[in-house]
Amino acid sequence: MSLKKQYLKSKPVCKVTFLLDKEEALGAERVDLLGEFNNWNTAEPVIMKKLKNGSFKVVIDLPAEQEFQFKYLLDGEKWVNDANADKFVGSGLGAEENSVVTL
Asked: What local confidence, expressed as pLDDT, does residue 96 receive?
């Protein structure tokens, strides 16, 4: 897993690349990215593209100078965090944590 950030000079936006390695995808056929940036809407998730090597990747534009909680949803069933997130915070659902990207 990894997060790559590319800040735009022309506007307060950061292009964030979310990458979930094949091993961390646990054999999933589909991986969705959900978080505060899409109101955790499972009906309209950010669908990640499956790469030839079995990893999943997506690039989205997010407002700079903000933080967003997020998680990956594997095959609509299993939630996983990004081990390389900037930090982790409690989700408010028991012992669960969410990944956080800080821009």
From this structure: 86
What is residue 24's three-state secondary structure? helix
Check residue 2 and give its pLDDT: 74
Q: Which pTM value belongs to this model?
A: 0.93
Give residue 1's pLDDT: 58
Q: What fold characterizes domain 2-102? A: Immunoglobulin-like (2.60.40)
- Mean pLDDT over 41-54 rounds to 95
Helices (H), the chain: 22-25
Backbone angles phi, psi at 93, to 5 degrees: -115, 70
**Residue 47, beta-bridge partner list:** 32
> What size, in residues, is the chain?
103
Domain ranges of the chain: 2-102
Q: 14: helix, coil or strand? A: strand
